[in-house]
Write a structure and sequence with these properties.
The chain is an alpha/beta fold. Helices cover 32% and strands 22% of the residues. The strands form two sheets. Strands 5-4-1-6-8-7-9 form a seven-stranded mixed beta sheet, with helices on both faces. Strands 2-3 form a two-stranded antiparallel sheet. Helix 3 runs antiparallel to helix 5. The radius of gyration is 16 Å and the shape is globular.
């Protein structure tokens, strides 16, 4: 498989959750190291994609400052990341879409480049490439075909809400990113946010 060009990939930041474990806050807009969390995610994607989209269900005007487009879930009710993935696949204008969450501010700057390279190395048969940190998968850090939208729609209609079960319906593969495992830390509590912010601050020269 030839290597994808940036114009063939839409970058999506998933920021449509309820933030229940943080008391219902809109996590993507929380400050982190002087910027909203979503700004760190957008910076990871921006140089490597043809269009940057944020999937958000609240505060769309605030998110619009960080993306080319902001799209909401096609159905209300905070139905989880699989609904966000479907809504983004449906909205994308490129054959491939790369997803990252809004609450992993330490993702490597070359993440998209590494996923694109991994896809090219695997050949034509791969539909979904999922980041693996050496110990576990990170299902919302993934590169996938936009053409999967119709199948995902049918799965959602049938009540499916588990990402791993839907991936298993397709030709998916893990991509080894164990050399930067710590970069996949995501923030589910205020304590985790403060701790990671301190760690990254200490790591800077």
């Amino acid at each position: 498989m030839s290597r994808l060009a940036a114009r063939e990939v839409t970058g999506v930041v998933l920021a449509g959750g309820q933030g229940r474990r943080m008391g219902g806050v809109d996590k993507g807009l929380l400050p982190f190291a002087g910027r909203p969390l979503v700004a760190h995610a957008a910076g990871c994607l921006r140089p490597h994609v043809g269009e940057l989209v944020i999937n958000a269900n609240r505060h769309r005007d605030a998110y619009a400052e960080h993306a080319d487009r902001v799209i909401a879930d096609v159905e209300d009710g905070f139905q989880g990341p699989l609904m966000g993935i479907y809504s983004s696949l449906r909205a994308a204008r490129t054959p491939w879409v790369v997803f990252i969450p809004c609450d992993s501010p330490a993702l490597p700057e070359d993440l998209v480049e590494r996923l694109v390279t991994g896809l090219a190395e695997r050949g034509e048969g791969t539909d979904i490439l999922v980041a693996h940190d050496g110990e576990r998968l990170h299902p919302v850090v993934a590169l996938m075909r936009r053409s999967l939208a119709d199948d995902l729609y049918q799965a959602l209609l049938a009540g499916e809400r588990k990402i791993d079960r839907w991936y298993a319906r397709h030709a998916w593969a893990p991509h080894d990113l164990s050399d930067c495992a710590a970069a996949f830390a995501n923030l589910n509590t205020e304590e985790e946010r403060v701790r990671l912010e301190a760690q990254l601050s200490e790591a800077r020269p």
